[in-house]
Amino acid sequence: MNLNQIINQKVQSAFEKAGYPNAQLLVRLSDRPDISDYQSNGALPLAKQLKTNPRVVAESIVSHLKEDAFFEKVTVDGPGFINMTISNNALSEIAYDILSQEKSGYERLTPPKKVVLDYGGPNVAKALHVGHLRPAIIGESLKRLHAFAGDEVIGDVHLGDWGLPMGLLMAELSERHPDLVYFDPTYEGEYPSETPFTGKDLEVMYPIASKKSKENPEYLLKAKDFTRRLQNKEKGLLALLNGFVCLSVSDIKKMYDELGVSFELWRGEKDVHDRLLKMVERLRLNAVMYKDNGAEIIDAGVSKSGNELPPMIMINSEGAVMYAATDLATIEERVEEFNADEILYVVDSRQSLHFEQVFNVAEKIGLLKKTTVKHLGFGTINGKDNKPFKTRDGGVMTLRMLIDMATNAALDKMNSGEMGRDLTDAEKDEISRIVGVSALKFADLMNERMKNYIFDEDKLTSTEGKTGPYLLYAMVRMKSLLEKSGETIELKKEDIPVITMPAERSLLLRLYAMPDSVQTAYDNNAPHVICDYLFKLAQDFNLFYHDCPIKDASEAEKKSRLALTKYALSVALKMAYVLGLKVPDKM
Length: 587
Prior knowledge:
By secondary structure, this protein is an alpha/beta fold. Among the domains are: 3-86, Gyrase A, domain 2 (2-Layer Sandwich); 114-159 and 264-375, HUPs (Rossmann fold); 164-259, no CATH class. The chain is 51% helix and 9% strand. Strands 1-2-4-3 form a 4-stranded antiparallel β-sheet. It starts with a helix and ends in an 8-residue tail after the last helix.
């Protein structure tokens, strides 16, 4: 149980005692914390239903709430709002029972779901760039949020490994090394155990091949032919593709590891090809799919706004399978193999039309009988000119560059003495990586998912304002206080924070508010809500640290304030984990 539930029970009891057992409670945190802690608007709809004065109804309820020593003050405000202020003793007494719980008072009120989260979406043989940051870290945070809320979550990276980009790579490789056995359809021997190229070779070749295909129609036709032959499962080309994937996945995993991003599944478009072929045959037999100018398409119905959507192309006029078709087959796989209740796609908002088509067709052919599908779009990362973020010379900002920029900025702060005054050089190197990556992630996650945001590299590692380092610094300070006192984070029944100062009360109330923030973030798939909560928690703790010193306090005050620090650190670390932020021991 959490504080919100306790308040609801008490208000429910008061409504019943006043003769209103079926009233709608509407209890929530107060919009005016300077006036009260919690507020109930339940008297207003009840009075409207009874055709009476809402203040009269509210006063009758308040008369019963005033009898409960749990509340310090209960008043009626405005047309009938009930304001409730909790007593300091009550706030202290429930601390252990709520905050020592595994989830610090969070309780799920609905049955758990099985969720497949599709995020990351890197393409084989392409270097990860700034555009890959958001899906990776938003997706990872949502996976952790859903798991915290009690869902069974499967994260799938969903590699781009089957379409024209693979054909382009093969076309370029065949021009550079035409004698490779992969290109001989009559070859019957074993293919090389080690590829005659590296991941870096692939990253260099792809943009060259892409440029050639735009300038040379014959080169494009060659690439399309390789794509068709690959999708027809020509043995040598499949072996070549496996080499592409192995090299790329190895490099991609290293980069995602640095970001603290992981996946349960490392599948790609090619993994559903056999399933897709069977699906195509069924759709042909059922006449759902039909030919148009040599392509095979399916009508996609109307959009949410009521406009007719373009038909969805399953197979193009050259006979190659299209991206939408593999997405459709992947939905079927996730429904049948994982029995998914919900499939969430963390993909750029500019792909919204594509997902409307795919979801409509999935519904049309009966894939979504018990499964909900959602596209969780996100905005772009822009520079200070409000254009897509690039390097200083206008080139593509790779993810490697971005991570190094954040890490070096953190290291510069440490070397300048702004952070890390008592750290060794080795500690500075290690901690700068932790701080830099956490700063990068928080700078992204604190923004509403659907909105574009401006990346401010100057503010990135600031220890002031709403930044990752500000949060980390507060948590490191909590750790340091406990370490110097000889205390651990282990919470005990006798750890009772006694409220003697306003800052203590504010911090304790903030800790009790965590379940509401988690539920709001979960309901809206909105990591920025957790960012807001954690920032406010850090602010409240820093005020507590300033106003309620521990070193020169009495033994009773010291014990109480260390207990409150333990509770604050426990909750803060849980929320930092949900966001995917790693917290150093020093800073």
